[in-house]
Amino acid sequence: MTPDIIVVGSGMSGAPAAWLLSERGYNVLLIESGADISPAELPTASIDWERKRDSEFNPVAAKRKNLGDYPVDDDQSPIAVCNFNAVGGSSILYSAHFPRFLKPDFTLKSDEDLAVNWPIEYDELLPFFEMNESIVGLAGKVGDTFYPELKQVFNSPVQLGKAGKSLAGGYDQLGWHWWPSYAAINTDQTMKRRLKCHGLGPCNTGCPMGAKATAKNTYLSLGLEKRVILMSEMAVSKLLINDSQVVGVEVVDRDKQVHNILCDKVVLAAGAIGTPRILLNSLNDDNARKIIRKDLIGKNLMMHPLGYAEGYFVDKIDTEKGPQGAMLYSMEFYRPSEPVDFKLGFMMHALRGASPVDTVKSLYGRRKLKFGADIYQQFSENYGHTMGIAIICEDLPDIANKVELDHENLDHLGIPGVKVTYELSNNSKRMMSYGLKKARQVLVSAGAKKTSGFGPIRNTGWHLFGTMCMGSNPKESVVDPNGAVHGLNGAYVFDASVFVTSSCVNPANTIQAVSLYLSDKLDEYIRNAH
């Protein structure tokens, strides 16, 4: 098959793009650097799942050295880069918390005089949110005042359980907003290739039953039935560029053999770290002049700085049961009503408790676990007794926060790794401090006898945005509102690197909706060109 379009990356943005374009009749070659992992290989399918989570399934990119990984130097960042390179990408390990970005997130410049407005509007994305939520089988409940446009869900909410009900009561006592989590989890009935959630708990190490929607068991499964050809364990090292036209990609296989695959339309969907890496590695003194704002490639990296508050409950609240990261959330401080010393706001995201091994490690580290006759009682008095609230802070673009090629650290195929430079803003620091106080307040209201709070948490850099910013003005952005790279014909970017602001909610739903929207625009462009 000669591809009409090449899509690089099979994760949250690449798989939806490949599916939609194949639905529109294009032959799509989907290239993934990582391996195709079977459900039986996921950590949760094994008794030693916590060991696997800390080794080959470790989400921290700098610690994991799997096939498809590349060196990531994030020493110059208080937050470590987290991702996963495999068929399905980071969706293999995500928590499946699935809210949308909110309507005001797209107009920060107009509303708050901060950053810039998105060049696309929320209402333009609305049909693609709805398409995406139908395909993943969104679980939740209609009626949240923060999401008046959300009219339909396909599964009932993840059960709150004893912990969630206690926390909801705490919010109610304070008169604060809360809502059951929107989740990409099949809670009700068996869907195609996906069983019902059994509440095993550690969703962040993979769901062997497929109850959790991933890019692999939704869009990729659908796409492979159409015109999508998947090529895994193949790393795209660079775009092939002739003057100002993309003519294909250079790939390196696991045997370190280099191949050229020709195609005049290439969609980069390797994420806010991987996409600028490929494009920067593609540029030389000649073709770099064609890209109007090449100096912006890799710049304006945004994350979601995360603080963590934990409450200890004397009575067991069963926080070992149910999806770890999909219980309830609060948008009470999305835009605080009381005077604060920071801009914007945060989401409060409830988290269930630690695993058995993590519980033991935490107790031991705090000198709360003594070996001897009482060790099992000490464990049982803590396991299932703690609950956390993550403070997810909205980040703002800063050109000093960036991703660069690291020519001193090459991957096993000889391709440069990346160096990440990121500094936590004073605004985020003040926001997080305020948020941790509020989280501890609600935990006490819910019945916690002891609370603690700290942040930023280092190994939480899942949400990465902004390194290939989108804009209508080619002098101020890398890609246009249709995802096309300014000045480089045939090069497109459909992942979270095009985001110009970050919101404060988990981005998976919005990443996929944006990918579908931009894929639709590409189809429209091709049809009009002919």
Task: Provide an overview of this structure.
The protein is an alpha/beta fold. The protein is built from 11 helices and 17 strands. The strands form 4 sheets. A 6-stranded antiparallel beta sheet has the order 4-11-12-13-10-16, covered by helices on one side. A 5-stranded parallel beta sheet has the order 5-2-1-9-17. Helix 1 (14-23) runs parallel beside helix 11 (508-529). The protein starts with a strand and ends with a helix.
Task: Record keyword descriptors for this entry.
single chain, 530 residues, alpha/beta, FAD/NAD(P)-binding domain, Cholesterol Oxidase, domain 2, 2 domains, six-stranded antiparallel sheet, five-stranded parallel sheet, 11 helices, globular
How would the blueprint of this fold be written?
Blueprint: E1 5-8, H1 14-23, E2 28-31, H2 49-53, E3 72-76, H3 108-112, H4 122-136, H5 161-174, E4 179-180, H6 216-224, E5 228-231, E6 234-242, E7 245-253, E8 258-262, E9 266-268, H7 271-282, E10 306-312, E11 328-330, E12 346-351, H8 356-365, H9 375-380, E13 386-393, E14 402-410, E15 416-421, H10 426-445, E16 450-454, E17 491-493, H11 508-529
Helix pairs in contact: 1-6, 1-11, 4-11, 5-10
